[in-house]
Amino acid sequence: MEQILYYVKVSWVSIKRAPLPYALTVFILSLGLGVFFANATFYYQMNSDPLPHKSDKLFFPMMLLVPYECADCKPPSVLSYANVQKLKSSDIPSAEAAMYSSDGYLRLDSTQLPTPVNIRLTEPDFFRMLDVPLLHGAIWPDNKSRQDIVLRKAIALKIFGSTDVVGKQLLLDDRSFAVVAVLDDWQMLPRLYDANNGNHVDEVEDVYIPLETGYDLNYLSNTQSQTFDDADYRQLATDGRSKAMHQLQYWVQLDTPAQQQAYVQFMTNLAEDEKKAGRHPSPVNNQLPAMRDIVAYFGGESGDIKAFALVTLLFLVVCLFNASHLSLNRYLSNQYEFSLRRALGASRWQLQQQMLADVLLMTLFTISGALLIGFGGTKLMNYLWPINALFARWDLTLMLFLLAITLASSYLVTLYPALRASFGALNQQLKE
Amino acid sequence: MSLHLLLQSLLRRKVVTGLLLLQLAMTLALLLNSISLAGQTWQKLHEETGLDLINSLTVELKPTTPTLRQYPALADLLERQMAAVRALPGVVAVAYSNQPPLQRGGTNGNLYDPDNEERTNINSVPVYQVSKDFFDVLQIKALEGELPQAPLLKDGEDISPLVLTQSLAQKLFPNGSAVGRQTNGGTVAAVVDDFYGQRNAVNSNYNRIQVAPLFSVDWGYNLLVRTEPGQADVVQAQLATVLQQVDSNIEILYLRSFNEEHNRLYRNEFGLAVLLGLLSVLMLLVTMVSSYSNAHFHALKRQQEIGIKRALGASKNMIFMELFCENWLNTLAGAMLGALAALALNQGLSAVISIPAISWWLPLLATLVLLICVSAATWYPARIATSVSPATATKTL
Asked: Are residues A317 and A379 in the same domain?
């Protein structure tokens, strides 16, 4: 320990002798790492898997069951109610839930000002499939229409000032609903269950009501809805259930490869049966992407973040070259000191230990600078791309990654110069 | 001053020269692509929209009660709101619309000539249901036909005729006037000037307009306002209060000028251009530090050599120029490598974003910028090196 402290002290003395070149080296390395880290934060969070144990078992079935003919069309990215019912005829999935989102206004009674809320209209399996945590109450038991509502914790606190509100009544768009459950803190990021049109970067919804209730009360989808016939999209209760009006996401849980294979076969049979019955003229085109691939399937990956990732990596490389360059100059200036130590009997291993003390000090200074610059960088990126603001979060994995990459960078920057200074012809070096 | 000697001097310190060359090359590559992207974003932000971006405003709002979202209560609300806004000093015209122009996407549908559906079908044409003053607000003139003045209803069903923008009309009916022709959405009553509708449409100038009641306001609706020149800010500041006074059962989702809406369309591109620009400046700074350090360190290392040259009659200017020439040579070599690296980076970026190819003159401009930066960084160490007297420099010989 004493020896390590000695090496650190020697490093510190060396830094104090020529502080400007050292400060420049640390600054440039911090700059490269800070900028890289700011973008890596978004890249890592946006590509993270919120359900790592399950995301390869949840699938989004899509079929080209539409009343028009198209040889090279992809299936619609949202499903009609009628097509979901056909898919529900299979008992292969362990769980299944259709869903969409809408907007509404919530209040306790008609004297209160309404609070705008995002609504997810869905089925009970949604909460089981996505491991949604409940704080109080229970989800409605089946897929039937009923005026029950589940609140997110924050909205329960906002409306009632408390989370223990199961059984209480409130008004959603001036219709009375009973609170059956309150969710615990939950933020699925990215929100993979609704990934079309880049919606995976949004927050989870404030309130949840049964899908059938949404259709009965004509709640329109606030993201994507398409009609492929003469359906009136305002008439969800009637046209929405029977015509080619597409607005639903539909997820199924297929736990084993055998289940997945069987479901693919089921979809093929269904498409062929429908074609034979003359209900769709297009060629069979079924898709079954897994939840972990859904953003890529819909082409929702952020090109800007990817482009900036490429450039920040390049910038980091330039900063590494630059810091190595500065470090080499610094070590060559100190070469006489190294040579003198060698002449006095210091082994190369002892010189390398001295170098490791330099690396440790440089890592300490660099990581402090990189964190400051990274923090500023994420703030700037949030300002320029506010849509990704939810992803500006640092967690332990990310911090450990930064520490590892800083240590590696400091080592690389110090390695060659130190080797150069501790090898070579001693006589010549002492003469210089 | 011999090129051979300069090259030899650079080759004496291969690692340092190599590192500097790589830095210069990468800096140039980033600089070139940043300028390209910034140029493209600037062009988009200054494109022709056919609209008065400065003196036009849009308010998106939504009634908070289901009753107010249904006709006839909705018709009454719209009339009261438009009357109140129209009465504001500085307001020239106001209209309602189911959606504003200058959007990424929105309500749209396909449009075709029923006699030739397969050949004429155009997908994703923005659909506007508007009040009659819509054309006055946007200052869009009728090029053919007459602008409808009121909705047309038959047996309670809306059969209002269509108004098409010029580009759309020409695409749909290339062989003659569109006025009076049938489409799957109704009869064409007029053709108007082009204006920017939706970015995700097949063509941003394709728009289909109907003077008609709002089909549904569950997604909200917009009030579009044209003000007298220079009055937009004053009117914008009053709009929220005025609309709340008309009826408090509304939520104002946003209130923006057309200019803000237009800028929002290219927010991502603007953000990336700013970040790349900032990074380019940082890279130039890093390169300057590198050039400074390189010149300073090697001037010190070569103090004796410089002293001998001075003793043998070399002037200060000659030494000064020699140091500069070394750096210029390095920079030019780095710039050549950088041009190749820029092409590779351009290819890499074009796989994930839309970026134009690099123009032939850009490498020349970027090399000039690089030369200026490197010269500025080299100047001080070169001056120090030349100010050493021959006697001091050769003292240890």
From this structure: yes
